[in-house]
Write a structure and sequence with these properties.
The complex is a heterodimer of chains A (about 120) and B (about 850). With about 120 residues, chain A is an all-beta fold. Chain A has no helices and 11 strands. Chain A has a single domain, classed as 3-layer Sandwich (Rieske Iron-sulfur Protein), CATH 2.102.10.10. In chain A, a hairpin with a 5-residue loop joins strand 3 and strand 4. The two termini of chain A are about 25 Å apart. In chain B, the strands form 11 sheets. Chain B has a 5-stranded parallel sheet with strand order 3-2-1-7-19, covered by helices on one side. By secondary structure, chain B is α/β, with parallel strands linked by helices. The C terminus of chain B is likely disordered. In chain B, helix 3 links the parallel strand 10 and strand 11. Chain B starts with a strand and ends with a helix. Chain B is about 30% helix and about 20% strand. The chains are: A mainly beta (about 120), B alpha/beta (about 850).
């Protein structure tokens, strides 16, 4: 299978540097991105900024699932977000400090053992 | 219009209830209340007076929420006795000479202890059993006498009623012998019949209390020093004594009302109607000082009717139509550990009533049900020695009892008990007068599905608590009826409780999350079950929290072994066992704090917290602390936090044991022990309790002979004082009972359930826990001991283990692609010489300033 790597995608680390079910933070330009490798081998990237606390901590949350949806929980106040759409699934009766409750999701491309993040493809 | 003034004379339990009831319902602030009590204390739980001996002080017995007395509309005057009432002027005079006017007056003066007018009743060494001061004086006397005579103090109690047996228990708990002398031919003549009295007598004698019935005391004679020394009986006999307690009845305190010209009952008590009003519509009387029409103008010496009168009076003052319809004299008591209960027509006075009786020759229990002549309808009952059926049967009075009535009094298992459906009108909680209907309505109409919420919403079970099993049963039945499953599921991935999952993992010997969820769950887990499994694995195997892929299970605090703060940085707390630290170690902490610019604060647990460390700085900080001989304080874990202590006998003038050494030993024993919630321990070197150990999950308090161990104390959202588990034990026993208590808690508690609610909800409560720990009733003590020994043997410092492992160290970086770069979003301002995270407004101002700078 060949993958087309968009011109705006930036390499952040080796795929092998990621531990299953754990996240890391990466700096792409000025943007902090949280990158997760799940136990099925898939890699997901979302904004590292937690909308409910304003702290850049999403990479340090716990991965899991709600139904079939892979999720990430913020380590600060435990809101749960979809890793596929970024939608906030559990708000814990709190309001975001600024902006909306959902996370931005960034496309991830795996190329030759490298994890590439494409900020331009973000929603 | 200003608020109207209500004056309450008396500050006992019923006065407290009246004020609470009024304040809760008086939303519009129609009334202000002034309460005058002659005792020095705020209203306390007189029913629990005997527990004064097992508790630390009078504050333990205080009733209700102390915030009631902070309410600006409520004023409590302690040590202030009302001396007269002027009904025409509507004023009262207080013993300091001041006068206060009232719009409405509530008499809640209660009753006083009565002793027969026999010679010697006023000798030193003769006591009443009515107030906190009575009880405290009795205790001081027994203690002093103990030292003086050098043998067990000889105690006698005159009166074999409820209070007399309580007093006998109190004497015994102080190490004195106790003889109960009762004039009537049986004990507790008001509650039980002759056979019941006989059963009670033999059960109590088994406990070492002597009982003499049918004996009249004619005098107390003085010994050579002028103190009570000999009891004389009318029959001619005598008995040597060191202390005498009179519990020969109470008399309503109606003297103020008499002097004010209000009618009183034949046997005392202010006469009131169904509205609890006296002949003067501006004066009410409630509780033991009142003689209500509905009670045939007799004063009732029970708390439940007093509470009802208080509620009726408060609600009528607010315009609600309520009436006092007479006392439910049903009672359930535990005297010297023996259950005694009676309800309804216990003496079978209804014409044609049938008595179904069961006496158990082995246990000594006596049980009786009173039924209508066709044996279909329950009229009442009586229990001595085993009152387990009381809570279920009492609300069924007047209702048809399905099946064979004897099934309720035969030992459990001998006959099948039919399922009972309580009638709506049945009173479930007689203390607070809550019916089955109101509980059902709270569940079905107000959507309350939690026992705790149900209690606070309906007040059921909040006074004596004896009806709680019933309340819980109604809740579950109603939930099942409406198709709501009473779920114990941890989360969508595990359909079992934490306790079940714990034993499942332990029995199956599983060690990884993937094996565990494959075997016992579904899906991929979540932020609820993963940390729970991580904690269970740590509790069972005591391996490193980051070993074998377990990092992904941990909450961020455990994953990085530090406490995440609001801006995503961490705080670091090195262990300072027992709060003891050398100046050299303090210097190292100070240098680390300076070098990393960490905000520094002393914690409540006698440690030092260093705030503002970034993820990538943690290993460097730990290295410096570990090099200086320090280790992780587990401030981040659901695990043992600290063992707080006072300085103890090594320095303190008053200390009786070395509390600091004990605290260090305990902290080093249980450090790193993962549990369902955080654990805190305290050790005090004497009864002054400077370490506040009874606010901890485990509190150890020095006594002259050793240590008392208390368990289940909590600060936090619902503060609880710890309860006594073991008394006057040596060091080795302290360790043993705490080992077992903590292991039992770790194995059986729910997720995030602290020790206080755990031991409350444990089947059989603290008594059952004691039985497991002290008497090995489940046969698991050896296993619990072994498990704790494994924990102690395999303990390692988590910080040091990370510093020695490059793979784990690699997790401590800010950015995977820029490991040396700090999180650029962090911003701080200085306050009192240290930094703190900037508020959103401060951040906005800062970025504005930096923009204008960059333009220059």
């Amino acid at each position: 299978m060949t993958v087309t790597v968009p011109a705006t995608a930036v390499p952040v680390c080796d795929y092998d540097a990621l531990v299953p079910d754990l996240g890391v933070a990466a700096l792409v330009g000025d943007t902090q991105v949280a990158v997760f490798r799940l136990d099925d081998g898939s890699v997901h990237a979302v904004q590292n900024l937690c909308p409910f606390s304003g702290a850049s901590v999403m990479s340090r949350g716990i991965t899991g699932s709600r139904g079939d949806e892979p999720t990430i929980a913020s380590p600060i106040y435990k809101q749960v977000f979809s890793l596929i759409t970024g939608e906030c699934l559990v708000s814990m009766d709190k309001q975001p400090v600024a902006g909306g409750p959902d996370l931005a999701v960034f496309p991830v491309v795996l190329d030759n053992g490298q994890v590439m993040i494409n900020l331009a493809g973000g929603e | 219009m200003g608020a109207q003034r209500i004056i309450v004379v008396g500050a006992g339990m019923v006065a407290q209830r009246f004020v609470q009831s009024l304040r809760e319902a008086d939303d519009a602030g129609r009334y202000e209340v002034e309460v005058y009590g002659e005792e020095q204390y705020a209203p306390y739980d007189r029913v629990a007076l005997t527990s004064f001996f097992s508790k630390a002080g009078p504050e333990e017995l205080l009733l209700g929420s102390p915030t009631l007395w902070d309410d600006p509309r409520v004023t409590l005057h302690r040590g202030a006795r009302v001396t007269s009432i002027d009904r025409a002027a509507r004023t009262v005079t207080v013993d300091d000479g001041s006068q206060r006017s009232y719009d409405h007056l509530v008499l809640a003066t209660g009753s006083s202890a009565w002793a027969p007018p026999i010679p010697g009743v006023d000798l030193p060494g003769v006591f009443m059993y009515r107030t906190l001061d009575d009880v405290a004086a009795l205790r001081d006397w027994v203690r002093a006498k103990q030292t003086l005579v050098g043998r067990p103090v000889r105690g006698a109690v005159i009166g074999g009623g409820l209070l007399g047996l309580e007093a006998a228990g109190a004497l015994q708990s102080m190490g004195a012998t106790a003889t109960v002398v009762e004039f009537a031919n049986r004990l507790m003549a008001l509650q039980v019949d002759d056979s019941g009295g006989e059963a009670l007598k033999s059960l109590i004698q088994r406990l070492g209390v002597q009982v003499k019935c049918g004996l009249a005391t004619s005098a107390v004679e003085a010994d050579a020093s002028g103190n009570a020394g000999t009891l004389k009986f009318s029959s001619g006999g005598e008995q040597l004594v060191d202390v005498v307690v009179f519990a020969t009845g109470i008399r309503p305190r109606d003297e103020l009302a008499r002097e004010a010209g209000l009618p009183v009952g034949e046997r005392g008590g202010v006469v009131v109607d169904d509205a609890c009003l006296t002949s003067d519509p501006s004066v009410s009387a409630i509780g033991e000082c009142a003689a209500a029409a509905a009670d045939e103008h007799m004063s009732i010496g029970l708390i439940a009717p007093g509470n009802t009168m208080a509620d009726v009076t408060a609600h009528r003052l607010l315009g609600r139509e309520e009436a006092y319809l007479g006392a439910d004299t049903a009672t359930k008591l535990k005297l010297l550990g023996v259950d005694v209960a009676s309800f309804g027509d216990a003496f079978a006075t209804t014409p044609g009533a049938l008595e179904v009786v069961y006496s158990d020759p082995f246990s000594g229990a006596y049980k009786k049900l009173v039924m209508t002549d066709d044996a279909s309808t329950l009229l009442g009952g009586m229990f001595v020695g085993d009152a387990s059926a009381y809570a279920t049967l009492r609300p069924m009075v007047g209702a048809e009892l399905p099946g064979d009535p004897s099934s309720w009094i035969l030992p459990e298992g001998q006959a099948e008990r039919p399922e009972l459906e309580l009638p709506d009108a049945a009173t479930v909680c007689s203390c607070n007068n809550v019916t089955a209907q109101s509980i059902r309505a709270a569940v079905n109409e107000d959507g309350i599905h939690d026992l705790g919420e149900l209690k606070s919403h309906t007040k059921a079970g909040t006074a004596c608590g004896s009806c709680l099993p019933l309340v819980k049963k109604i809740l579950n039945t109603e939930l099942e009826k409406s198709g709501i499953e009473v779920s114990e599921a941890l989360c969508e991935h595990f359909a079992m409780s934490r306790a079940s999952l714990f034993s499942a993992i332990q029995v199956a010997g599983l060690t990884t999350f993937s094996d565990i969820i494959e075997r016992f769950g579904t899906g991929h887990g979540c932020d609820i079950c993963k940390p729970t499994v991580g904690s269970i694995l740590a509790s069972i195997y005591n391996e490193h929290v980051l070993s074998d892929g377990r990092a992904a299970l941990q909450d961020t605090n455990d994953r990085y072994m530090a406490n995440m703060q609001k801006d995503g940085t961490y705080s670091v707390v090195p262990r300072i066992p027992g709060g003891e630290i050398t100046p050299d170690k303090l210097l190292v902490i100070a240098e680390v704090a300076k070098d990393f610019d960490l905000y520094t604060k002393i914690t409540g647990g006698q440690r030092i917290d260093l705030f503002g460390a970034r993820l990538e700085q943690l290993p460097e900080i730990w290295q410096r602390l570990v090099d200086a001989g320090m280790e992780s304080g587990h401030a981040y874990g659901k695990s043992l936090r600290t063992v707080k202590s006072c300085v103890g006998s090594s320095w303190c003038r008053y200390g009786v044991q070395d509390s600091t050494s004990m605290a260090i030993a305990l902290e080093e024993r249980y450090r790193g022990l993962r549990s369902p919630h955080k654990l805190k321990v305290g050790v005090s070197g004497c009864a002054r309790e400077c370490a506040e150990a009874r606010g901890k999950d485990v509190g150890v308090i020095a006594t002259e002979k050793g240590w008392n161990v208390y368990v289940g104390g909590n600060g936090g959202f619902t503060p609880k004082h710890a309860q006594l588990l073991a008394e006057d034990v040596d060091d080795a026993t302290v360790f043993q009972v705490i080992d077992r208590y903590l292991m039992l808690y770790i194995r059986t508690a729910d997720r995030l359930q602290r020790t206080a609610p755990w031991q409350e909800e444990y089947e059989g409560g603290l008594d059952a826990i004691k039985d497991v720990i002290l008497n090995d009733s489940l046969g698991i003590c050896a296993d619990l001991d072994e498990h704790m020994a494994h924990h102690i043997d395999t303990y390692e410092d988590e910080w040091k283990a990370v510093l020695e492992d490059p793979a784990r160290l690699a997790q401590f970086t800010s950015f995977v692609n820029a490991p040396d770069q700090a999180d650029p979003s962090l911003a701080y301002v200085e306050e009192r010489g240290q930094r703190r995270p900037a508020t959103p407004a401060e951040r906005a101002a800062m970025s504005g300033a930096s923009r204008s700078e960059s333009r220059v």
